[in-house]
What we know:
Two copies of one chain form a homodimer. By secondary structure, chain A is an all-alpha fold. Chain A has six helices and no strands. Chain A has helices spanning 2-53, 61-75, 96-99, 101-124, 128-138, 141-148. The radius of gyration of chain A is 22 Å and the shape is elongated.
Amino acid sequence: MNKLIKVSLAGVLSFGISMAASADDDEIEEAIEYRQAGMEMIAWNFGRMAAMVKGKMPYEAAEFAKRAENVAALSKMSLEGYILGSDEGDTDAKAKIWTNWADFKAKMVEFENQAVQLADVAKTATTLEEVKPQFKNTAVCKGCHKKYKK
Amino acid sequence: MNKLIKVSLAGVLSFGISMAASADDDEIEEAIEYRQAGMEMIAWNFGRMAAMVKGKMPYEAAEFAKRAENVAALSKMSLEGYILGSDEGDTDAKAKIWTNWADFKAKMVEFENQAVQLADVAKTATTLEEVKPQFKNTAVCKGCHKKYKK
């Protein structure tokens, strides 16, 4: 009987531990993939606006406005993917994101704010000159990458 | 009139061909990754709404509304990732997407419309019962997956 209890307990414990470990790992992996998907989609849309700003693609107001609207929407999504523990895994995020959380979060919110303003400007703009200044303001992402991305 | 149709047809054909020709392997890979990122982000947000609808997570109006807004924004983004030639590569997209393009596009637009309506309903809803019917309407993605996803 004692032996049976011991065996069962050992089974339960090891099952519990493996469950806890695997659930966390899955959640962390999913969160990393989510934020990476968000960044990838931002890059796709941002890159096309950058090409217009640099004269590598013709400026088209409706196209630019759509890209800006997409980036504004996406800029609000990625933050929740930076869950605790997700500094480890298949990620370029530096661990200091979590030790400097307030600063990192403020930088993400600043990017959101700039992206929303860009979408607003782009909605009614008809020339590249009108969107250029706010596009440059929205490129704050670079500073954050430099500090927090491997 | 016949001539006009012929000229237009020639234009459409050459446009189609040049589009197809200009999409190189890198562009195709990037487009596949873009649409997959979009689908992944939709799944993240949609899954959390589904958990609330199924009672696996407590319903929180603000949380549900944010998820619905995210899905509405994301639902408009993925379509452009289905470029010509991107039926080959690391993708679960069936080739018949491109042979049934009008039907596929209509289904994507239907999903967008339902997702936008869900975001509208969720914005002012305070109970789960208010959002449930439109959440179910938004789950049209399933039918499209069945037909066009490997």
